[in-house]
Amino acid sequence: MTTLQDEIQQLIKPNLRKRLYVAFSYPVAPVEEIVPHIPEHLRYMMEFEDHVFLSGPFITEGQPVGEGMTVLYADSEQKAAEFMQNEPFIRRGLRRFEIKLWELREGTLSVKTKLSESRFDLDRGGPVRSDSHHAI
């Protein structure tokens, strides 16, 4: 190994290096055809939430439907693809998807929850501000 490769390996050695599958989804049908199926999509995502690390749409103001991203807990690309193929928008041919293997290495995540009020705060590790709570 070269010195550069050795340095890179040393720098990433302490990283988490958790591998997850990321599904990017894209609409292939008009918004008018997709919108009526949003409740079915949301029910599916809530029912199988234990298979999902993070998920949500990319936001474009004024557009109710757009591209999305779902980070999945899956043992293989095939399992991740099965989850996505069963997702209602995709199953109905309203969206398409692509899957990429992703390695989580860096970042900071602090989560504070107030379960009795269904509130949470995602913070960068500093003190939690009372005005930074968001509804779940």
Widest β-sheet, arrangement of strands: 2-3-1-4
Share of helix among residues?
25-40%
Specify the number of helices. 5
Unreliable residue runs:
128-136
CATH-derived topology of the largest domain: Alpha-Beta Plaits
- The backbone outline, from C-alpha atoms, is globular
CATH domain class name of the largest domain: Alpha Beta
- Overall average pLDDT: 88
What does the radius of gyration come to?
Answer: 18 Å
Note the gap between the termini. 48 Å
Number of domains: 2
Strand content: 25-35%
**Overall strand count:** 7
Reported for the largest beta sheet, the result is: 4 strands, antiparallel
Q: Helix and strand string, N-terminal first? A: HEHHEEHHEEEE
**Structural class by helix and strand composition:** alpha+beta
CATH architecture of the largest domain: 2-Layer Sandwich
CATH fourth-tier homologous superfamily of the largest domain: Dimeric alpha+beta barrel
Description:
- The strands form 2 sheets. A 4-stranded antiparallel beta sheet has the order 2-3-1-4. It has a 3-stranded antiparallel beta sheet with strand order 5-6-7, with no helix packed on it.
- The protein has 136 residues and is α+β, with helices and mostly antiparallel strands.
- The protein has 5 helices and 7 strands, in the order αβααββααββββ.
- It has 2 domains: 18-105, Dimeric alpha+beta barrel (Alpha-Beta Plaits); 108-136, no CATH class.
